[in-house]
Amino acid sequence: MVIPAAGRGVRLGPGAPKALRALNGTPILVHAVRAMAASRAVSLVVVVAPADGAAEVKNLLDDHALPDRTDYVVVPGGDTRQESVHLGLKAVPDDITTVLVHDAARPLVPAEVVDTVIEAVRDGAVAVVPALPLADTVKEIEPAERPGDPERVVATPVRARLRAVQTPQGFDRDTLVNAHATVALAGEGATDDAGMVEKLGAPVVVVPGHEEAFKVTRPLDLVLAEAVLARRRANDGF
Ligand SMILES: Nc1ccn([C@@H]2O[C@H](COP(=O)(O)OP(=O)(O)OP(=O)(O)O)[C@@H](O)[C@H]2O)c(=O)n1
Ligand SMILES: C[C@](O)(CO)[C@H](O)COP(=O)(O)O
Fold first, then answer.
1. The pTM is what?
2. What's the domain count of the chain?
3. Residue 84 falls within a domain, yes or no?
4. Cα(103) to centroid of ligand 2, in Å?
């Protein structure tokens, strides 16, 4: 399991790197690691920390309780998510054949999603994404030619065939390592790991995502995350 956590969180606004910011008094990263460790199938978590913050992240994880069966290592990240995942993958021991990649920025993913993704890989899929249907209609636009000009719509993809993909995404380890090496060599990029596997021409399987697996990206997402935790506490109380 690789958790890229080296991003700055620019869209969340000024402050500490996003993974280290507090959600209900606990760093977002700790929530994310605990969410992964909640699956009994996860034995090792490789956390990819901000390049200048690996020691701080290691101390943080040492200070927060994780299940005994979950081991973790911390490695410094890169300038992009893709680079950070690549660096994390290098720290995964050779005998691990199923690898998950999970954004630290999705701290509330339920264990059932993690288990479903792992099961699909173990059943033979080389790449698996959890995904949800879209609520909004999506337009493809032509970027404005000059600043101040309006963007123009060029197409409206059929919404029923679109999915918003989440993490953890699950992979056959060799396929993911090959995808990262090939895409980096070609100087290409992708905004998620499955996108890199698609560039190899390998099949990617979709499993159900979960609305609580949303990515904390903008300030309102933190408000929503606090509300989800409050709802969980209230439900636990009954
Ligand atoms: N150089 C980077 C950039 C991103 N990430 C990680 O990739 C995940 C998804 O990225 P995103 O939500 O875009 O996080 P940021 O890059 O931090 O956000 P922003 O673009 O607002 O700065 C996050 O867990 C983030 O820490 C990473 O490990 N290394
Ligand atoms: C990997 C991801 O979370 C899948 O939805 C997403 O692509 C990350 O994008 P970002 O540009 O790092 O926010």
1. 0.96
2. 1
3. yes
4. 8
